């Protein structure tokens, strides 16, 4: 069992960030620690306890590079079409560009996917993604507790079929998230600035 950081539950929840420029690209990540964190993630809820998720872990440099190239193409298109951004938006864009530049050098990539049996349902898909994304967030938390960081992205999904072909993912399985995983440069992460609760809280109706 890997030694855990001394974080209480609230601190763990409020300081687990999407880490980009503070990912340590030089320090190898043992696959055993990824497996240990995934064992924790498998305790997350799924609809009807179906557990139809799948976790594709990439450590092979050429595979990571090729996924990174597809991410970079998607990033270039997405951000070229964005409206002018404020200071925070520019900072996020810079971090996302950094990910596009270094994805092939990140020690581990993890793709969270889920069995759908074929095409995604029309209309509200909360039932599908609600059975995958809690597990992905639990994975991020479990990694943070072990001194690792993760960066959560979905931009590669513009090329989901190309990634599926590259990795042999069957057409009955859809990808939902890509996590870049590495040790972090320091572990002193702080809560991020968020909108005041009262701006988004609704009690007994909108």
TrEMBL record:
The keyword Chloroplast does not apply. SUPFAM superfamilies: FMN-dependent nitroreductase-like. It comes from the Bacteria. InterPro entries: Nitroreductase, Nitroreductase-like. Gene3D superfamilies: NADH Oxidase. One of its GO terms (molecular function) is oxidoreductase activity. Residues 15-178 form the Nitroreductase domain. Transmembrane segments: none annotated. Keywords: Oxidoreductase. Belongs to the nitroreductase family. This is Nitroreductase. The lineage of its organism: Bacteria, Bacillati, Actinomycetota, Actinomycetes, Mycobacteriales.
